[in-house]
Design brief:
Residues 4-234 form the ABC transporter domain. This is ABC transporter ATP-binding protein. The protein is an alpha+beta fold and 337 residues long. The protein has 8 helices and 19 strands. The strands form 4 sheets. A 6-stranded mixed β-sheet has the order 6-7-8-3-9-10, with helices on both faces. 26% of the residues lie in helices and 33% in strands. The protein has 2 domains: 4-231, P-loop containing nucleotide triphosphate hydrolases (Rossmann fold), CATH 3.40.50.300; 238-335, OB fold (Dihydrolipoamide Acetyltransferase, E2P) (Beta Barrel). It binds adenosine-5'-triphosphate. Adenosine-5'-triphosphate (ATP) binds at residues 13, 18, 36, 38-44, 192.
Length: 337
């Protein structure tokens, strides 16, 4: 098992409250991702679950049992850090088996557990090496292996891929998704990265200034955000926000994703047009991003599939697809229907 419940959890450092009453349920076997801007409290929340920070008030429970007062080592939780946190003087094999050794596990059992984890992670040829003799990606796999060997109730990951280069990030992300499927374990994962959150999560928790803004499945948050913050945070490139009043609409703000904003080099080609000037074009290979400066709505992003020859400084006309638009009130709350 490994279901986690947070009930009205708060955290203050001195007079500063950084977690302001969080309620959350993570089911057994679920992959839950915490996202939010820098400083919103993602790591603090994770560290409270691990027992590395005290909880100021509220309750943290695993499988219904309160763990607030339980020492980190007794929580049956394994944490994987961005910095790997491996012992430099120990081999890969000994780093992976250390927690079991400290717990007095028989040698044969440790060898079986480390061997199995090494096999799952493709670490078998590296078992005799020390961390200094490994690449960043290999070190992170050892850190993940060390967590697997302990067979924890809960895996916690604190931005585990942020020290890896782009290609390795993708490969390790796929590896983590596979491990989650194979182990069926509960995992909580902190990231800044949009793509990691969307691709790994069963459930995304969007945090802002120590509060939960919205919880949901990735595509539900993408297709049905509750407010401008979530709408702007989930999805890359970011959703455009247009002043709806100037478009003759009744809501205060209209949100439109870059792929739902049509662009034309000639006026009158598409309805409901907004005139603007191209300020920047990014050709990404499979897609082109065109940044258009408009008088009423500031800078808007258009996402086109394939390669296009729009030139900087050209005047263009944009047209939002009304069927794909989101509407918000003056406080940024979503207006539905
Ligand atoms: N030990 C501490 N003492 C005082 N303030 C702290 C301490 N640890 C964290 N904070 C503050 O708590 C807030 C939340 O920090 P936290 O590291 O949890 O954010 P985060 O969402 O993980 O940010 P990032 O994405 O930048 O890592 C920040 O404002 C931070 O400055």
């Amino acid at each position: 098992m490994g279901a986690l419940t947070l009930s009205n959890v708060t955290k203050s450092f001195g007079a500063t409250e950084v977690i302001a009453g969080v309620d959350l349920n993570v089911e057994h076997g679920e992959f839950c991702v915490f996202v939010g801007p820098s400083g919103c409290g993602k790591s603090t929340l994770l560290r409270m679950i691990a027992g590395l920070e005290d909880v100021s008030s509220g309750e943290v429970a695993i499988d219904g049992a309160r763990i607030n007062e339980l020492a980190p080592a007794k929580r049956e939780i394994a944490m994987v850090f961005q910095s790997y946190a491996l012992y430099p003087h120990l081999t890969v094999r000994d780093n992976m088996g250390l927690a079991l050794k400290q717990a007095g596990t028989p040698r044969a059992e440790i060898a079986a557990a480390t061997g199995k984890a090494a096999q799952m992670l493709g670490l078998e040829p590296l078992m005799a090496r020390r961390p200094a003799e490994l690449s960043g990606g290999q070190r992170q796999r050892v850190a993940i292996g060390r967590a697997i060997v302990r067979r924890p109730k809960l895996f916690l990951f604190d931005e585990p891929l942020s020290n890896l280069d782009a290609a390795l990030r993708v490969a390790t992300r796929i590896e983590i998704a596979r491990l989650h499927r194979e182990l069926g374990a509960t995992m909580i994962y902190v990231t800044h990265d949009q793509v990691e959150a969307m691709t790994l999560a069963d459930k995304i928790v969007v945090l802002r200034a120590g509060r939960v803004e919205q919880v949901g499945r990735p595509m539900d948050l993408y297709n049905d955000p509750g407010n401008t913050f979530v709408a702007g945070f989930i999805g890359s490139p970011q959703m455009n926000f247009l002043k709806a009043g100037s478009l003759g609409l009744r809501s205060d703000l209209m949100g439109i994703r870059p792929e739902h904003l049509a662009i034309s080099a000639e006026a009158g080609q598409i309805g409901g047009q907004i005139e603007g000037r191209i300020s920047h074009v990014e050709k990404l290979g499979g897609e082109t991003l065109v940044y258009v400066l408009t008088e009423d709505h500031g800078l808007l992003t258009v996402r086109l599939f394939g390669e296009h020859d729009y030139a900087v400084d050209a005047t263009v006309w944009l047209s939002p697809d009304p069927a794909r638009a989101f509407h918000f009130d003056a406080d940024g709350l979503r207006l539905r229907g």
